[in-house]
């Protein structure tokens, strides 16, 4: 049985750092771009399809708009710093992405299929099967995505790329990935070993730093709230 605490720590690191899973947003050499362009046969995609790029612990989602264009939600710190579309429309780098997640600013933008996936495998409309929901007509899906283009608040749990896609595709914004994460957090809270571990860590911090408010109060209240929540 997998350790739920290790799972949630791993997922947090994956979502916050996003480096290994989102290397496709780094700018590459011209030869690399040419190689990526040959990976996808976009003629098999239809306007309004959901495109999915599976990663280790998460999946990135977008709506295909036709003509090799994908609408998807992307965190980007640059959106909070400048209105220069010439700069913000460039492919989002890892640093821009990570800082955008932290400050919770994003946009629903349009990129090519190659820049959206950057060499990763693409699943088409896999959510229809996994969620067992009836999709709206493809043209309606695409129009919904196009109406939402532009700046948007971002939240890993409450407003991410999966919420955007499921709203466009099914009419309701949901995120099974976020739900799974929250369930894992609940398991950790309910596990009394978490109370013991937090108490031990709190005691160790008090021993190392002394009885000061910034260590004593958390050392007392965190185990208490975990105990009450469990």
From TrEMBL:
GO terms for cellular component: endoplasmic reticulum membrane; multivesicular body; perinuclear region of cytoplasm; rough endoplasmic reticulum. Residues 50-177 form the LRAT domain. PROSITE patterns: LRAT (PS51934). The active site is at residue 161. It is found in: Cytoplasm, Perinuclear region; Endoplasmic reticulum membrane; Endosome, Multivesicular body; Rough endoplasmic reticulum. It is a single-pass membrane protein. The chain crosses the membrane at residues 195-228. Its EC number is 2.3.1.135. Pathway: Cofactor metabolism; retinol metabolism. Belongs to the H-rev107 family. This is Lecithin retinol acyltransferase. It comes from Callithrix jacchus.
């Amino acid at each position: 049985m997998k350790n739920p605490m290790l799972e949630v720590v791993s997922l947090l690191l994956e979502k916050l750092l996003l480096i290994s899973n989102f290397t496709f947003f780094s700018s590459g050499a011209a030869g690399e771009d040419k190689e990526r362009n040959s990976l996808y046969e976009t003629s098999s995609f239809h306007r309004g399809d959901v495109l999915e790029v599976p990663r280790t612990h998460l999946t990135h989602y977008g709506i295909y708009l036709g003509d090799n264009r994908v609408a998807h939600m992307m965190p980007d710190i640059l959106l909070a710093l400048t209105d220069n579309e010439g700069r913000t429309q460039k492919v989002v780098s890892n640093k821009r992405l990570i800082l955008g997640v932290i400050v919770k600013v994003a946009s629903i933008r349009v990129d090519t299929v190659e820049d959206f996936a950057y060499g990763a495998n693409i699943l088409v409309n896999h959510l229809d099967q996994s969620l067992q929901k009836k999709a709206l007509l493809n043209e309606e899906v695409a129009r919904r995505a196009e109406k939402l283009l532009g700046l948007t608040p971002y939240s890993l749990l409450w407003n991410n790329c999966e919420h955007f896609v499921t709203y466009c595709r099914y009419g309701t914004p949901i995120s099974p990935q976020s739900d799974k994460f929250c369930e894992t957090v609940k398991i950790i809270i309910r596990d009394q070993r978490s109370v013991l571990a937090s108490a031990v860590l709190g005691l160790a911090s008090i021993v190392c730093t002394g009885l000061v408010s910034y260590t004593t109060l958390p050392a007392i209240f965190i185990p208490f709230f975990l105990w009450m929540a469990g």
